[in-house]
Amino acid sequence: MAYSALLTDLYQLTMLAGYFEKGMHETPAVFDLFYRTPPFEGGYAVFAGLEPALHYLSSLRFTDDDLFYLKGLKLFKPDFLDYLEGFRFRGRVTALAEGSVAFPLGPLLTVEASMAQAQLVETALLNIINFQTLVATKAARIVTMAGVGEVVEFGLRRAQGPDGGLSEVRGAFIGGVGSTSNVLAGKTLGIPVKGTHAHSWIMAFPDELSAFRAYAEVFPDGSVLLVDTYDTLESGMPNAVTVAGELRDRGHRLAGVRLDSGDLSYLSREARRMLDEAGFPDVRILASNELDEYIIRSIQENGGRVDIYGVGTRLATCQGEGGGALGGVYKLVRFGDTPKLKVTSDISKSTIPDRKRLLRAVGVDGKFLMDIMCRLDEDLEPGDVVFDPTNPARNKPIPIGARLVDVRSVVMEDGVISAPLPSLDELADRCREQLSRLPEGVLRLDNPHRYKVSVSRRLNDLRTQLIDEVRRGYPHAVVRN
Q1: Would you call 443 helix, strand, or coil by DSSP?
Q2: What Cα–Cα distance (Å) separates residue 149 from each residue in 145, 219, 247, 423?
Q3: Which of 244, 316, 431, 453 has the fewest CB atoms within 10 Å distance of its CB?
Q4: Which of 177, 158, 239, 169 is nearest to 202 (CA)?
């Protein structure tokens, strides 16, 4: 997907013009992109959107049409527009591997470039990464609750426009969804496509049995029959069983039946019973209708016999407590040679300054124990005391015996993608593997375990020093530790 240089907020361009006029546009700058609170009141996020973000950066340029439009706004001087004509992103990006689990405050990616370059890309990076990470996280929660059940993405008609429909499917696949009804996503992204038919197909025929027979004649080995147009158990299922027998007599097989309304736990149990008693244990049951991780959990807790979950609206629009948006932010952490800190009255919203490493402590069993941010030139060891960035009075040692792993790497150098870009299948495999290594309780839907994210002593000391400098420089500012 191609992204325009005008996919930005106006204030990015006005700030850029100001930096240019004040001679600050070439000053080196470092920005971190991170989030503060896990979405859906959960315990983690799944990082997604890195590859399209890198393609955006590598192809960033202002076209003649872009410059003509900007000139017409009558906001910008000719020399600044001339500067934009040759504008390119020539920076470095350090990032988590896409498909990795990510936790609050730890930088998902860091941009190091001139102030002009690093500032301009803020809006587009947040747009790409916030949404795909949100969807990948929602998908991971749904797939986790589905267990051995398959999940199909059905959300195109409720997605945020055509572009959102593609981005949503990409994030959902990384999060573990195995296929989609979105044909364009299948072509563009190489994701398997699956589907059934609508109620209108049934209603277009004289009766339900005729509709089922007609569909089975066209797709004798791939039919999934929608059985709830009139009455699921009195009409839809008996007719589906009849067609299944007719297909078998001709050397074919019915692929499945779809339940789209009613008590899905009860109906799926009865559908399974009817299919098994008729000799069709291999016919699968697909359930749809406003499903999410909580409804899937309820279906299973009540003895449902669903094989495939078709999840649409609540995945595509990321509905749920704490959903709707990830809330990722992009903050300046170094300008020139000076570490920078955003300070507010709420310490949890104060940023972590300067370039940094993001380390993950891994136990002897391979489970993730905690994440630690430290200064770029700093080495840590098990037993070192680290601090809670939201409350520095709380601290604890890195567990003895833990292995510390750098979880980020340079993926772009001088504006050129410098790391391999894995396939979507590989990203989905990474997500699945990483979820399996989370501590017990992090995957819980209700009151999940809060994974520890800490800062090293040296980074905590730097943060404290900068806060003290703010206090001295702005004595009336309210800054709380």
Answers
A1: coil
A2: 9, 24, 25, 23
A3: 453
A4: 239
Domain contains 426: no
pTM of this structure: 0.95
* Residue range of the domain that includes 193: 145-316
Residues 367 and 261 in one domain: no
Instruction: Please state, rounded to an integer, the average pLDDT across all residues of the chain.
Output: 95
Q: Is 159 part of any domain?
A: yes
Q: Is 147 left (phi over 0), alpha (psi -120 to 50) or beta?
A: left
pLDDT, tens digit, 9 for 90 and up, residues 313-329: 999 999 987 777 898 99
Residue 204: inside a domain? yes
CA proximity to 329, closest of 2, 10, 37: 37
31 forms beta bridges with 111, 332
Domain count, the chain: 2
Say yes or no: 171 and 235 in one domain. Answer: yes
Range 48-63 average pLDDT: 98
Considering the domain architecture, whether residues 308 and 365 belong to the same structural domain is answered as no
Question: Where in 71-198 does DSSP place strands (E)?
Answer: 92-96, 101-102, 109-114, 150-153, 179-180
- Residue 155 sits in a domain of what CATH number? 3.20.20.70
What does the pLDDT read at residue 473? 74
Alpha-carbon distance of 314 to 289, in angstroms, equals: 10
Q: What is the DSSP letter of 233?
A: I
> Above 80 in pLDDT, residue 481?
no
Check residue 478 and give its pLDDT: 44
- CB 305: neighbour CB atoms within 10 A? 19
Same domain flag for 365 and 266? no
